[in-house]
Amino acid sequence: IKRRSPSAGDLRPDADPAALAAAYERAGAAAVSVLVDERFGGTWDDLRAARASARLPLLAKGFFSTSEHLRTAQEAGADAVLLLLRDLDDARTAELIREAEALGLDTLVEAHDAAELARAARLDAPVIGINARDLATFEIDRGAQLELVASAPRDRVVVAESGIESRAQAAAAELAGADAILVGSALMRAPDPVAKLAELLARP
Q1: Residue 7 has pLDDT above 80, yes or no
Q2: pTM score of the predicted model
Q3: Cα separation of 7 and 40, whole Å?
């Protein structure tokens, strides 16, 4: 659930987080990611609205670096939080993982290159996200993402993030070894986000 993207501009400015979360749940989503950062048109109230309407796990997605961020996420109804290795050193990441666990939150530790993937592995991150988008340039490299997915530790949950717009691309991530995909823009741009989700989840 994201209303806009810094790279693509407005996606769905009038998005209703409560309605979308409930609809995604009915359509078979395993979890829902909710952008709470104003750069994406999001707020903590979006997470609260999604929590009030859906029972599936919710990921608070933003740029989190403090204990207060984690407490706010937990109080707003999150089940998990995003930690971006691009913005955090190893010591701070490890501390945030521990603090999240104490609050009953899972963590999605995001990497976008081989060095960050190695850091996530060393930190024993149980869930590793591999982002095809370089957050500095906003460029997407799905080939590099699939290589990283294939090289990720097999004893972790690996999530392929960004750049997935079709069932074929989702299948490629799965075949490379991803346990899940995180899809935002493709759903928010679709005339019918729920139909798009059903398409991405369809099996051959």
Answers
A1: no
A2: 0.94
A3: 10
Tens digits of residue pLDDT in 56-97: 999 999 999 999 999 999 999 999 999 999 999 999 999 999
The DSSP line for 93-105 is HHHHHHHHHHTT-
CB-based contact 85:110 (threshold 8 Å): yes
**Sequence-separated (6 or more) residues with CB below 8 Å from residue 95:** none
Which of the pair, 9 or 130, is modelled with greater confidence? 130
CB 111 within 8 A of CB 128: yes
Give me the amino acid identity at 198: A
Give Dmax over CA atoms of the chain in angstroms. 44
Total count of residues recorded for the chain: 204
Residue 7, CA distances (Å) to 11, 39, 201 in order? 10, 10, 26
Distance CA 188, CA 83 (A): 23
